[in-house]
Amino acid sequence: MARRTEPPDGGWGWMVVLSAFFQSALVFGVLRSFSIFFVEFVAAFDEPAARVSWIASIGIAVQQFGSPVGSALSTKFGPRPVVMAGGILAALGMLLASFATSLTHLYLSIGLLSGSGWALTFTPTLACLSRYFSRLRSLAMGLALTGVGLSSFAFAPLFQWLLSYYAWRGTLLLVSAISLHLVACGALLRPLSLSEDPAVAGPGAQLASLLHHGPFLRYTVALTLINTGYFIPYVHLVAHLQDLDWDPLPAAFLLSVIAISDLVGRVVSGWLGDIVPGPVARLLMLWTTLTGVSLALFPMAQAPTPLVALAVAYGFTSGALTPLAFSMLPELVGTGRIYCGLGLVQMVESIGGLLGAPLSGYLRDVTGNYTASFVVAGAFLLAGSGILITLPHFFCVSAPTSKPQDLGTEAPDTKAPLRRKGWERTELQKDPESQRLAAPGLLPHIGAQRTTVPSAS
Description:
Region (Disordered): 402-457
GO molecular function: monocarboxylic acid transmembrane transporter activity; symporter activity
Number of domains: 2
Subcellular location: Cell membrane; Golgi apparatus membrane
Strand content: under 5%
Family: Belongs to the major facilitator superfamily. Monocarboxylate porter (TC 2.A.1.13) family.
Shape: globular
Domain Major facilitator superfamily (MFS) profile: 13-402
CATH topology of the largest domain: Growth Hormone, Chain: A
Low-confidence stretches: 399-457
């Protein structure tokens, strides 16, 4: 285990970024391309869209609901063996899915088994990455999560091409082989020990402090609402385009357009998140609002040109909100609590991932088209952006962008995480006269009265 007093903002951290890049590609690139299989499963099993939608929803929900398990195991054994084990489970689930004879088999193989593998890979990797970066955290997150956009761009036409030659069973066998590369991603992770770690309590105390921390709870609710509508285009867009008499290959190409825009959005958002003054929550709210609007407008577009324009807008804004959603969490809870905090957020927002796609499929079955599905999905994102406005310092122009929120503000009986060095120092450290007065017996209570000011360094 590497030992540092503060996040190195580089070094081996860039290898962790590389690992997270491929890991996000192999997890969410597959999930985002699931709409390619959606049409095949509807035809193969002669089931309604709502029932087939449960396959992806169960996978997303298990991945997120099982995140605390991955976090707890990573805290005890380190992220490397946990992520490697998750890669084996993800590949095994896809392998068994290729032999499925009913939707129940797909629920268990892709949804439960592969979802469990994804739960052991995604959260520990991003939590490990958060501990390696402080000043450049948003950029590192953006670069790591560009793997989702690149893989979506590559996987959508690739899977469609494979389906035309090997059918869905053979394609799932190949996806299983690709997923096995998650084992190599896990091998690149190196645990990092930081100076604030000894001051952080055990998992039970961390959980109790987070459950009494108002901003964290509001942020979790916001992400849950966002998650409910976020994945709808990746599950139902191809089917929606086929309702408009599009051929399968051009419909899959539109997913690639979204993926390219998503890639650009993640990099631009990560860069902006580190240089734009003010709280990250403001940028996150902006991208979330624009994503919700673009989702709601999808049914209004019928011709190819406006559909491509909306695909570009949705891809950019939905990609832009993702790195900020993850880089903001350490600002609320501190890097010492990031494993517990990220696992808890992923678990709660799994409710949205579980209900979003089936609700969209149900609305399609009831109304006969996807208009209500996309409008409702956009409404969920707009509701989430409204909650983000309630986070601390949202309207404060001079609030630092990367300053952890003090858990003690709404949980007085718990200790706040240590501040990251280089961002602030105490008034006592700044004033030599205060240092002289702080000698034993002269100013015994100075520690309880000191305030913090931004550091110029």
